[in-house]
Design goal:
Residues 291-295 have low confidence and may be disordered. It contains ten helices and 13 strands. The chain folds into two domains: 2-231, Hsp33 domain, CATH 3.55.30; 237-285, CBS domain Like, CATH 3.90.1280. The termini are far apart. By secondary structure, the chain is an alpha+beta fold. A hairpin with a 4-residue loop joins strand 1 (2-9) and strand 2. The strands form two sheets. Strands 1, 2, 3, 4, 5, 6, 7, 8, 9, 10 and 11 form an eleven-stranded mixed β-sheet that branches. It has a two-stranded antiparallel sheet with strand order 12-13.
């Protein structure tokens, strides 16, 4: 199972997160036939959403959505909280023009997405929903997210993201507001310089604790218990029923008249949900009701 590793540096105002995704990333890709350049960028997005969820300590859903007018129109990754001791659940999706010529694997994010923006949505289990928007002004996803933290959160934050189609990884370090507990004012610059020496191959192949030792063995770092991450889709028959109910009775009747039933599919996990004519009639009246039993 994949994990996210939290750490901080004693007597400083610097903290961080580190993750390497293999199983959860593979579970996303096996459900779709994405070109390599799309798979790689989606991997970076998946690592980023895991890092940001841990960074803001959100008990709820966090999503990163990149929209643009380029050959790839949508990249989206989402983190959902597990229940009890279950892992935090990750899922992701991409939409692209299958007839367009995609750039090569070294393409920048704007070359892939065109003009666009990133929407960061925080939807806590108990609290108010928040959205932040950042333009695709940097060449990388990491650069765009760093700009978001600088402008919107006023927290200096550095990100290193990598993906090779099999693994995705991310490292985040963040400077918290200064106070009397910070006895090392040079720590932020020093830790950034050390993190800059990390190669993409090391980020993707080393175990998190190996990476932390490789980078920060001369620092006094406190490493916390890793938290599990796994692929998981939140779709359900009940959610699709509620979505169909919102379409309205007239349009639902027209679809059933043409097709005899309604056949739907989750874009994230490809699970199919088929609603018979009788089930459609039931959900028009009561979308939360169980499926009717025919005798």
């Amino acid at each position: 199972m994949d994990h996210i590793q939290r750490f901080l540096f004693d007597d400083t105002n610097v903290r961080g997160e580190l993750t390497v995704l293999h199983e959860s990333y593979k579970d996303v890709l096996v459900r779709h036939n994405y070109p390599d350049v799309v798979s790689r960028q989606l991997g970076e997005l998946l690592a980023a959403v895991a890092l940001l969820t841990a960074t803001v300590k959100l008990d709820g859903v966090l999503s990163l959505e990149i929209r643009g007018n380029g050959p790839v129109s949508l990249l989206m990754a989402e983190s959902n909280p597990g229940t009890g001791e279950e892992a935090q659940r990750l899922r992701a999706i991409a939409r692209f023009d299958e007839h367009a010529a995609l750039p090569d694997d070294k393409a920048t994010l704007p070359e892939l997405m065109g003009d666009g923006h990133i929407v960061i949505t925080l939807d806590p289990s108990d609290g108010q929903r928040y959205q932040g928007i950042v333009a695709l002004e940097a060449e990388t996803l990491a650069g765009c997210l760093e700009a978001y933290f600088e402008r919107s959160e006023q927290l200096p934050t550095r990100l290193w993201l990598a993906s090779n189609g099999e693994r995705a990884g991310g490292l985040l370090v963040q400077k918290l507001p200064d106070d009397a507990s910070n006895l090392d004012p040079d720590a932020w610059n020093r830790i950034n310089m050390l993190a800059e020496t990390l190669s993409n191959d090391e980020l993707l192949t080393l175990a998190p604790k190996e990476t932390l030792f490789r980078l920060f063995h001369e620092e006094t770092a406190r490493v916390f218990e890793p938290a599990p991450l796994a692929f998981g889709c939140t779709c359900s028959r009940e959610r699709f029923a509620q979505a169909l109910h919102r379409i309205g009775a007239q349009e639902l009747h027209e679809i059933v008249s043409e097709q005899g039933e309604i056949d739907t599919q989750c874009h994230f996990c490809n699970t199919r949900y088929v609603f018979s004519a009788a089930e459609v009639e039931a959900l028009i009246d009561t979308p939360d009701a169980p499926s009717p039993t025919l005798h």
